[in-house]
Design brief:
The chain is an all-alpha fold. It contains six helices and no strands.
Length: 254
């Protein structure tokens, strides 16, 4: 009777493993939204816990069959053979579910990381857009133009590492068919805005550099002119002080 019960327990265990494999491993899942992906991760975590909890039951079966085999070798030998099959299948099921759980957790982590990088780069784009807008109505002063140019250049020196991460993370998920529609839409919007603002910012940088160069050249010309006028004023003042007649002066002084 004990052998019959143990045989029944082994059959039930095998049936449970078959159902678990069908439910957790053989279904063709599609993750088209973050909610679906997050739910799948939580389901696989519960599946992993559920499977590992059966380890106690498997150990009890193993111990009972060994004990029966020691007392009734003829009955125990057949059960031991069935037990080995169940143990092998159970270990395989544990490994596969652990692997799928780990994979889904990695995918979810990849998605969260992508969102974080997009947030960082979006903040940078907002800052860049603000700096570009600030260059629109500048006072016609050299210091103001110079400060605006330096401010814009400091933002443009932003490293490209984050954008590389966005591209790689997004492509990895898309290649796996994970959230591909949502990610493609996000990347397309981000890249379009990045290209537009980058070109606009570089154009404004070039325009400011040219404006600054013109203002410096004009400022230099005015400075030279002012120095010449000052010298002339000093010379004319000395002529007047010495009461020199205009016709006695050199032609340029006249």
């Amino acid at each position: 009777e004990k052998a019959v019960n143990l045989k029944k327990d082994l059959a039930e265990m095998q049936e449970w493993m078959t159902q678990a494999e069908e439910e957790y491993l053989e279904k063709d899942f599609e993750y088209k939204s973050p909610e679906e992906l997050e739910n799948a991760v939580e389901d696989m975590k519960r599946a992993k816990e559920d499977v590992l909890q059966k380890e106690v039951r498997v150990k009890i079966l193993k111990d009972n069959i060994k004990m029966l085999a020691s007392k009734v070798p003829s009955s125990g030998q057949d059960l031991a053979t069935e037990l080995n099959v169940v143990l092998e299948n159970y270990q395989l099921l544990c490994n596969r579910i652990r692997g799928k759980c780990h994979t889904l957790e990695e995918v979810w982590s990849c998605w969260i990381e992508l969102l974080q990088y997009l947030d960082l780069e979006t903040s940078w784009l907002n800052n860049l857009e603000e700096r570009v807008q600030m260059t629109g109505n500048l006072p016609d002063k050299l210091d103001a133009v110079n400060d605006a140019l330096e401010s814009l250049e400091s933002v443009l020196r932003h490293p490209a590492d984050n954008r590389t991460q966005i591209r790689e993370l997004g492509q990895t998920l898309i290649d796996g068919g994970i959230l591909d529609d949502i990610i493609s839409e996000k990347l397309e919007a981000f890249n379009a805005r990045y290209e537009e603002l980058s070109h606009l910012a570089v154009s404004r940088q070039i325009a400011l550099e040219q404006q600054l160069q013109t203002m410096r050249e004009t400022d230099h010309m005015l400075q030279v002119l002012q120095e010449n006028l000052t010298d002339l004023d000093r010379q004319l003042t000395s002529y007047l002080t010495d009461r020199i007649d205009a016709f006695q002066m050199p032609q340029e002084a006249q």
